[in-house]
Amino acid sequence: MIICMTQPSVILATASYDHTIRFWEAKSGRCYRTIQYPESQVNRLEITPDKRFLAAAGNPHIRLFDVNSTSPQPVMSYDSHTNNVMAVGFQCDGKWMYSGSEDGTVKIWDLRAPGCQREYESRAAVNTVVLHPNQTELISGDQNGNIRVWDLTANSCSCELVPEVDTAVRSLTVMWDGSLVVAANNKGTCYVWRLLRGTQTMTNFEPLHKLQAHDGYILKCLLSPEFCEPQRYLATASSDSTVKIWNVDGFTLEKTLVGHQRWVWDCVFSVDGAYLITASSDTTARLWSMSTGEDIRVYQGHHKATVCCALHDGAETTGA
């Protein structure tokens, strides 16, 4: 028997090298559900736009779990990658999912059908993939330092650039309105481009800024969401155990979030940009106030590095 729970309005999940995924009450910090994930570590978590499912990217598969069930079993498994899946995300209506893997491929999956619908070859381990807000282009970054734009309409690579040769692109993020893209690399540098629409449908990258954000690796970079406007921030999470918050207007440093003891692997903004959740090798996840720069909640329960987090505190979006 599967017991359905009343759905919390805020869904917060973390995953750790201890082979568990944990769901948390964001306000109280209480862990209310733990899923065992014995097969591999989890590299990335993402919640579907309708808040019904949590995708866990492992090695080499992606598992989809029902957010409102107590069942420990996944409802679906996506199995055609052959190495660590490092990126996963959803189209805005939740009709399809995309993924990127160290097997060198970017894949697209129809959530209503088994198997992979499309596959793009990056020829190097893919570390990060983001979906352009236009929903028709995927942007990937790989271990060799390549950034590629995959045009889903033309079904081909429409753009390729290498900000720094042989320096792995670790994380990519796109502004909600499609105006900017930021790539963070293993040398602590962020490259910022303006995204311009060409005469065709193709997106052009215009170099805007180069930011030496950290001395260590940047493990995640993230631009603030739409409801954070008119403020626009870039968060950079680093192996130096800090997260830095940059004002996108001039890329000046607004705040440094200090509290984690080890590498900070992941971060996610609340829907209004007022809070940031982070996940760290010190086994904790933390909730930060963007206005004060203080951590106001520590999520403790994992007993190894906490490497990814997912948050959905917005309204549900339901596919047509």
UniProtKB/TrEMBL annotation:
Compartmental location: Endosome
Pfam families assigned: WD40
GO cellular component, one term: TORC2 complex
Keyword terms, alphabetized: Endosome, Repeat, WD repeat
Matches recorded under PROSITE patterns: WD_REPEATS_1, WD_REPEATS_2, WD_REPEATS_REGION
SUPFAM superfamilies recorded: Quinoprotein alcohol dehydrogenase-like
UniProt KW Repeat keyword: yes
PANTHER family with a match to the protein in the record: G BETA-LIKE PROTEIN GBL (PTHR19842), TARGET OF RAPAMYCIN COMPLEX SUBUNIT LST8 (PTHR19842:SF0)
Family: Belongs to the WD repeat LST8 family.
Protein name: Target of rapamycin complex subunit LST8
